[in-house]
Amino acid sequence: MRIDTRPRHRNAGRPPEKSAPAFLQWLRGRACILARTGECQGKIEAAHIDYAGDKGVSTKVSDRYAVPMCSHHHAEQHRGWKTFEAKHRINCLAMAGEFWRRWPGRRAWESKFQSTEGE
């Protein structure tokens, strides 16, 4: 039996217009969106809202559709967005939009992609 030792083909990386690592870092400095419950545990993580609509094959949604959650609530969210939102009576997609608008680096990030549109 022969074993193929050649490097595997890698898929294309994540498109730059979906990636905002500085935003995710900024989010990790915010409080958990459920801090009011007093149930928060662990470090703050960026939770991507899967149902936001711009997922691709083997890729997650754009970073702009993320909210800050503690490890405890992030793990709970992974059991299902709709159930999670109903239980806590929140709209995470609306919250994500608000965090994106409040991010100090948003205009500079967006201008990188607006200048290349239409070329």
Can you walk through the features of this model?
The chain has a domain at 20-52 and 60-105. Strands 1-2 form a two-stranded antiparallel ribbon. The chain is mainly alpha-helical. Helices cover 35% and strands 8% of the residues.
Brief characterization of the structure:
The protein is mainly α and 119 residues long. The protein has helices spanning 21-27, 71-77, 81-88, 92-102, 106-114; strands spanning 44-48, 66-70. The longest helix is centred in the C-terminal third of the chain and has 11 residues, at 92-102.
Secondary structure: elements and pairs:
Blueprint: H1 21-27, E1 44-48, E2 66-70, H2 71-77, H3 81-88, H4 92-102, H5 106-114
Antiparallel strand pairs: 1-2
Label this structure with key terms.
mainly alpha, two-stranded antiparallel ribbon, 119 residues, 35% helix, 5 helices, 2 strands, 8% strand
Amino-to-carboxy terminus distance: 52 Å
- Across the major sheet, the strand order is 1-2
Helix and strand element order: HEEHHHH
The amount of beta strand, in percent, is 5-15%
Principal-axes shape call: globular
What is the number of E strands? 2
The helix count comes to: 5
| Mean pLDDT across all amino acids | 89
Please give the largest β-sheet: 2 strands, antiparallel
Which runs of at least 5 residues are low in confidence (pLDDT < 50)? Answer: none
**What share of residues is helical?**
25-40%
Q: What's the gyration radius in Å?
A: 17 Å
- What structural class results from the helix and strand content? mainly alpha
